[in-house]
């Protein structure tokens, strides 16, 4: 969810907000049907695109004209081509493509939850049947499959920040709680051959993570702990624990409970890495991403929200960790918090 701050709210801006879902729907449909990949080979008529993608000719023409209307395609004399930048960002085979993120950032489950946001606001939590805390929530399969495009910068940061510390240890055992795609742990394993990773998540998610581990050449050093992160024995002790993109799903009290479990599975000199949104003292219009993500947590969880950095200090201290070092990357809304086990 994104926003553009404006010093003066205009009627056109209000209309853009009212109809924003249409643009999302067009982009999602173009990606799902393969329109941008099809046109990556060169300009085509609507009939050619419809024939190649097995679309109804009338439906294909209407879609292509609409994609041109919102600036994703160009059209001249009935021939359609990619708009400038579309090859880089929307063609699935390109190095910088973010097309697959549409399955995560514009998922059916997210849309369903936000359609009844007014009820969530009235009740103070989710009102949909399938949501982020539902066991075996199917969305996590899409997240594990497609969210890898947004993970690289923060995974690289974690690996860089831990590199010197890991190098001083004879071996490094890593627990990745609610691992999802698993890329944070695999980035550590790819950098250091002594690293072994234990991934904890639902079984259907671990299957997808295993595929990423295989692709990155670290599968032989990855172990699985299938089940609920609040209930499954964590094993250990570990040198590093990763808790990424998960604490915002819970209240401060519940998140602290999870952090206490993780602390109990770490070695006395172990290290914790938390990745997620955080709220700072910046006003919402200066740092909109975490405030907008909190809306999704309201619609999608019973008590989740993006926590303030002061709340993280409280949670980590209560769970037995030191105050975290907070790391930021330019133009990346996620923060990386690194803390040590606190000595009595």
Strand content: 15-25%
C-alpha Rg (nearest Å): 22 Å
CATH architecture type of the largest domain? 3-Layer(aba) Sandwich
Largest sheet, in brief, is: 7 strands, mixed
Q: Which stretches are poorly predicted, pLDDT < 50 over at least 5 residues?
A: none
Structural class computed from helices and strand pairing: alpha/beta
Q: Please tell me the overall pLDDT.
A: 93
Domains, number = 2
Strand order of the largest sheet: 6-5-4-7-8-10-9
Distance between the termini: 42 Å
In CATH's first tier, which class of the largest domain applies?
Answer: Alpha Beta
CATH topology of the largest domain: Rossmann fold
Number of strands: 10
CATH superfamily of the largest domain: Vaccinia Virus protein VP39
Tally the helices: 16
Please state the oligomeric state of the protein chains shown: single chain
Overall, the morphology is globular
Describe this structure in words.
The structure is a single chain. By secondary structure, the chain is of the alpha/beta class. It folds into 2 domains: 11-97, Orthogonal Bundle (Arc Repressor Mutant, subunit A); 139-340, 3-Layer(aba) Sandwich (Rossmann fold). It is 45% helix and 17% strand. It is built from 16 helices and 10 strands. It has helices spanning 11-18, 20-33, 35-39, 46-53, 57-69, 86-90, 102-105, 108-115, 117-123, 139-146, 152-167, 183-191, 203-215, 252-264, 288-300, 309-319; strands spanning 44-45, 73-76, 79-82, 172-177, 195-201, 222-226, 238-244, 266-276, 325-329, 332-340. The strands form 2 sheets. It has a 7-stranded mixed beta sheet. Strand 5 (195-201), helix 13 and strand 6 form a beta-alpha-beta unit. Helix 10 packs parallel to helix 13. The longest helix is centred in the middle third of the chain and has 16 residues, at 152-167. It is globular, with a radius of gyration of 22 Å. It starts with 10 loop residues before the first helix and ends with a strand.
